[in-house]
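User: Teach me something about this protein's shape.
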Amino acid sequence: MSQRLIIARLLTGTAAFAALATPAFAQDSQATTPAQEPAATTAPAPEVDAPTTAEDDSANDIVVTGSLFRRENAQTALPVTVITSDSLVKAGITNTADAVRQAAADGAGSIGVGFTSGFSAGGSAVSLRNLGVSSTLLLVNGLRSANYPLSDDGHNSYADLTSIPQVNVERIEVLKDGASSLYGADAIGGVVNIITRKQFRGIEGGAEGGLSQKGDGEKYRVKLLGGIGDYGNRGWNLYVGGEYEKNGKITANSRGFPFNTLDLRAIGGRDNNRADDTLTTPTPNAVVTRVTQTDLNNPLAGSVANATSPAIFTSLTPLDQCRFGTFSENTSSRVGTACAHDLTREYVEILPPQERYAGVARFSVRLGDSIEGYVEGSYSHNRVDITLPPRGIRQTQAFGGSPTTSTSNPGIVLPVYICSSGVNCATAADRQLNPNNPYAAAYANDPANGAARIYYLFGDVKAGSVRKNELYRLTSGLRGTIAQNWDWRVDVGYSRDNLDLKQTGFANLNGLVKAINTGSYNFVNPELNSQAVRDSVLPAITSLSDSTEFTVDGSVRHSLFELPGGPLQVAVGGQYRKEKLNNRSANPNLDVPGLSTAQAFGNRDVWAGYFEISAPVLDTLELTASGRYDDYSEGFSHFSPKASFKFQPIRQIALRGSYSEGFRAPTFAENDPRSSFSGFVGYNPGTASPAFKAAHINNAGYYANYSVGRGYVGNPNIEPETAKSITLGGVFEPTRWLQFTADYFHVKKSNLIVTGPLAGKAIDAYYSVAGQTFASAADAAAAGCALVAAVGAGYSCNVIDAADPFALNALPRLLVLNAPYVNANYDIVEGLQFTAAANVPITDAIKLRSRLDVQETIKYDRHLDNGDVQRFTGTVGPADLSSGGGTPKWRGNWQNTLDVGRFSLTATTYFVGAMKGVATDQGNLDTSCAATIYKDANGGNSFCRIKSFVYADLNATLDVTKDFSFFVFVGNVTNTRAPLYANTLYTTQPNYLASWHIPGLVGRTYRSGFNFRF
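Assistant: First, the predicted structure itself:
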């Protein structure tokens, strides 16, 4: 982007925010919130006995994220946005995850609880400057917290925001700049530092409850914080607190069309719901067709070919008992009638039910005239109950398992005979005809030709998971002064994140085979199955994982001598960290087809030393330099430097800028050879390859949208990612009640740790042979796999589906692709960030407070090693990242509070820009609508545009007394509808983007409650 255009954008944004200024008032007001950028609010904090900012020694000195020094002037060279607890109350935000994710800098890769089918579903994280959750560092009072035990996308680590209590949060500082020079690895995109109260005296609390306009999504919350001890006079303070929150579920069906179905024919789209028109699509009502069985003891030994032509399909459920009606096929390939279903409408949830409770405590003590200490602890429990569409009896093998045990190759068959042992039933003394097989009687004397291939979903057992996450944190520290001007501090922190993951609805292969051969499972009427039978076939699978973080960090700082602008300050410090991860596989024996085998293990020590120098060389110019050296026990190290400046020729204008270098350390999932995972992404072969559709035209279920797996194993030779960042901008304060900022940023992140960057091209290469003629499906697959291997080293076919019974010589589907972890490619991210804050005293009794936070992503380009460039800005790419939420070009929020005596009214408006339904990491580099992933009924691109999304929350508060207030909150007050996105990549997000559009699906909500303090 040209310098001239960048300057023009900055000036345009600055002029726009200057429009917030109304005619100047004669009186001035002092900013009361410590921040380099406009604060979220200027309301005073609750009463405390000492300054509540980190490391405060005086009421005028503060320390902000990104620096080691105290200062009277909060405006440094770094862009930091501060969100105060009062601002969160005004916005109606009740948990830390939502508080952080409201920041405009949160972009591509952001994780919200609305994405229920991801690897780390149940967790939540922020992605600053679109650089990913593993490139954004989360701190609590300046110390790291243990990572969520499950990795996003199978390999990206992050600390879970949902598990951070909010009851004692004073403010949240979001540093939107590279910060590895002080904080080490992973701070490439920036730092989120959650600051808790240092002391508190008195009691405060509150309670609230509400629900959506449709009567669901109920929400209840209570909180209480109490503290004793006059720190200023008695030298100690103790507070304890707790909070509880419960949120009800919201189903897709409750929100109606188009968010409750994959059938968009009513608006010119396609019918991607195959459960009401294709007999080979499994549903909770079993359908069978006759095939041969080569091994009567093995239900996996059914033939690919059907026994008749056309194949005759029989519903095991009596058709008059179909809850949603029936459908029929009568073609040259298939004949039969079955129960109709729309699985999205029946099972998909927009938001799962969630329950959270947490406790906090802190003891602060003055040990002498120059030494202070503290001990702080917290515990949080987060339970998310996720329901998904039921699992199929036919599943792809577990990654790493033997293809001979894949239940989708060629499928599951029900034998003619069953017996008590389940072995050699055709000749057993107690044999009997299989009541689940409608062909059993006719083929009693020819059991090899009377097997019934079954298409079925286990609808009688809940499919989904219950995730119980517990986070323990304990920190303590000492700080003081030596010889009056040597300040020192030592902090020690330990945190542990325990995850209990219980998954249900998956069939254990051994249990399933035995139940089929003994006839114990009733496929005709599954409701009659006993719990014991269900447990034997679909046992609940529990896996326990944990992550720990231990940190010792200390520093000293000193003012050396006076410069024209103030003292030259120097700080040096050191840190030791111990990190461990035990992410245990839920499928260690590889005996549960379809269940993820993702696992990650690691144990490392990190030693680091760092420094910072602040040189106010003039009254108008301050220069800062910092650097950090990190050494990892895994055998790599990195030095991260940073330099910044602030030039303030007059009080109203301050120009600022920084240059920094940083790195992201490989996660344990990426570099430990014990770690592995396979991920699945939606793919529509019928759309991507017309030739493939033509070859399988008699089986719509075979060329419909499905999930392609990609398997990876940890690579110990992986190197850290590196980044270089530049930030330039300014702070403008035309009056003391108005301040706004504008910053340009440019980040180049190199040596990316990527999972199969050419996976999309490899999949396309496989399907490119679909139009050719082959002697068999195996020959076709071999030709396709040869092209996959030619894409690059490490690419190969892992699992190929069975041949299409209605096109035995055509190319079968690719089910799992092997792809490598590599250091490859680089990202270029550019953008503009704008903030504005006004605190307007209209009269003595009326005040207007306004805060604006906006980010424009100018560029997010991934440069591949082969010279290709994947451009993501304004599209749903990178679709392989997190929940496939895409990269909105614009994102922002604007909060306005009008205070009139004891009454205040706050409107918070949120904005997500328009996008296009294209993703260049899916094999097509074109960003025009010609590359739209979802084609309409005519093959056109009418679904390309995803409209912008703007909604507003309204909160009214009445201070009944100085100690008691009552509030009413209306979320999405205009009931703005989420924009339509025909999502073929993640069908558990039917026609929306979970990262950005959830409030538009939930619709208008209501909450009311009270807060007290005394």
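Now, about its shape. The mean pLDDT is 89. The chain is about 10% helix and 40% strand. If you'd like, I can walk through any region in more detail.
User: That's plenty for now, thanks!
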